[in-house]
Every structure is written in structure tokens, then in C-alpha cells.
Amino acid sequence: SMVPNVRVVAYISDRNNLTHIKRANADEVIVGDDLGTAMLVSYVMSPGVPQAVNRLLNSNSKSRIRRIDIPPEFVGQDYNQLFDHFRQENGWIMVGVYSEDENLGIGAILSSDTSALDQFIERKLKDGGISLQDQSKINVTVNPNSEYLIKENERAIIIP
Prior knowledge:
29% helix, alpha+beta, single chain, 4 helices
């Protein structure tokens, strides 16, 4: 049986390779040229933005963006109440919330040459009832409006 809690993130360095791979339930696919190009353009067009992004993503930074549990008493409350709570109690800024789909199955990246191993993996995934799908299994809501209500099983994205 396949391990249900394995998270698979595929990284490809060139968008053209998207046509050369078959995706079998990968949780995320990151295209390297998209990220690099976006950052490069923002250094020219939006000075300050890429520097801030680097600080938010740098694991050594005190202001590294994080995910945290939401205190249960805020489920059903509106976003602003939780936002204000984190700001007043901890000095944090809440950027948004996210939830994970429950059916986090194992993913696999299959090469285009359909080798025996790839065929075996694809067959086993289908035998296990694992669907081949493209969408992300992480549902993110960034800076929702003030009427947004916190749902059960959501977590917060914050900047300390």
C-alpha cells in the first residue's frame, strides 16, 4: 500500500518540460523559470518588493513568513477578529489562511518515455484509486475581506 501522508512537490527548471512529463497526483508543480523571471522583473519594476520577499522567505530572517495553528475559539469568528488578536497579543501580521485537502495521497512524477517503472507506478496509482489531477491540494486565501469567517481545520499564515 502507498504511504498516505507523503507530500510530493515537483520542480522543473524549464516550462517546455511540462509537455514532456506526465503528472500523477503531484501535490504541487513549481516551474523554476516562472519564479526566477518574476523576481528578476520585480528588481527592475518594483524595487523593494523582491528584497521584502527575500526577507519573508529567508529561513534565517526574524520576519520569515510562518504558518501557525488558529486558536479554536476563533473558528466561526470573522477574519478581522483573529487579525487583531494576533497583532495585539503577539505583534504578528496575519497575511491569510489556508487549509489542506484531506485526501493527501502520494504523488509521482512520471517521465515521458513510459519506462517499465513508470508504467508500473502509474498502474499502481490507478489500482489504488488515486486520481490523476492538476489542482493544488493547498487552498490559500490571502487577505480576505472582513466578512470572511474562519473555518475549522484552517491555519494562519503570519509574519512575526
